[in-house]
Each structure stands twice: as structure tokens, then as C-alpha cells.
């Protein structure tokens, strides 16, 4: 049975890399990205959060990052390393059926004792995809 750790907050956000936004602000997830974009004045945002490596991991355990409602998700990095979304072949049939609702990334090889997760999100022109759901670690 998988164990879930919710990364609710605090998350820091600001305009995407290279912008001249003021210092980061705080939020928690899930949230409406349109409200964050209005407060920052930008359509692309960098969300970041720090967390410790989960304790009690066995050598055979896998740690996945789950991002719900990821329509606006452009990029994910952990400790400066780009993360690759798991393909349908790497997911179970149940996971594959909800692939558009949940983005999954394998963090196992990237985890350090103290970690820095960054998600770059860009708002689409339409109202759909304007929110980002809970972000969780799943230990398998």
C-alpha cells in the first residue's frame, strides 16, 4: 500500500525565472493560478517548496512526485535537476487512466537529505487548466 505525504505549503511563488518580480510570496496548494498570476503580474509562475527526504525509506522503495490537475505545468525540477514525467508504460493501468489528471515523476534517484522542488506553470488562454491541485510524494 503506497504512503502519501502531502506538500501543501508553504509554497513560494514569483514570476518565472528571469523576470523582475518582487520577492517571492507564499501560498498553499491546491490553488487558483489566475489569482497568483494577478498578484504577480505574470502568466508564468515559478512555485517552489523545500522538504526533507522521507525517513525510513528502504533500498527497494520508490518515491514519486504526484501533481494533480497539471494542465498548466511546464517544467518540474528537484535540486536543480529536470524531472521527466513518467510515461504511460511506466504507470499501472489505473494510473494511466487518470494520466491527464495527475502528472507523475520518479524522484528516487534525485532525493537528498534536504530538497528544493520547483514547478514552472504557465496559464493557458482558456479558463480550463487555471488551477493546480495537491502535490504529494508517494512512497511505493
Mean pLDDT: 86
Helical fraction equals under 10%
Enter the CATH topology name: Jelly Rolls
Multimeric state: single chain
Cα gyration radius (Å) = 15 Å
What is the count of helical runs? 2
List low-pLDDT spans: 93-99
Description:
Helix content is 9%, strand content 41%. The strands form 3 sheets. It has a 6-stranded antiparallel sheet. Strands 1-12-6-9 form a 4-stranded antiparallel sheet, with no helix packed on it. Strands 4-11 form a two-stranded antiparallel ribbon. The protein starts with a strand and ends with a strand. The chain has a single domain, classed as Galactose-binding domain-like (Jelly Rolls, Sandwich), CATH 2.60.120.260. The protein is globular and about 45 Å long.
Short description:
The chain has a single domain (3-139), classed as Sandwich (Jelly Rolls). The model is unreliable at 93-99 (pLDDT under 50). The chain contains two helices and twelve strands; from the N terminus they run ββββαββββαββββ.
Amino acid at each position: 500500500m503506497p504512503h502519501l505525504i502531502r506538500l501543501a505549503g508553504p509554497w513560494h511563488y514569483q514570476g518565472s525565472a528571469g523576470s523582475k518580480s518582487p520577492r517571492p510570496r507564499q501560498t498553499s496548494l491546491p490553488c487558483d493560478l489566475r489569482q497568483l498570476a494577478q498578484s504577480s503580474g505574470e502568466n508564468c509562475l515559478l512555485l517552489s517548496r523545500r522538504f526533507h527526504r522521507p525517513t525510513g525509506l528502504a533500498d527497494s522503495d520508490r518515491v514519486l512526485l504526484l501533481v494533480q490537475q497539471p494542465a498548466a505545468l511546464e517544467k518540474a525540477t528537484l535540486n536543480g535537476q529536470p524531472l521527466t514525467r513518467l510515461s504511460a508504460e511506466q504507470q499501472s493501468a489505473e494510473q494511466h487512466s487518470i494520466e491527464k489528471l495527475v502528472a507523475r515523476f520518479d524522484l528516487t534517484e534525485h532525493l537528498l537529505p534536504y530538497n528544493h522542488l520547483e514547478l514552472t506553470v504557465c496559464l493557458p488562454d482558456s479558463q480550463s487548466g487555471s488551477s493546480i491541485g495537491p502535490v504529494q510524494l508517494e512512497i511505493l
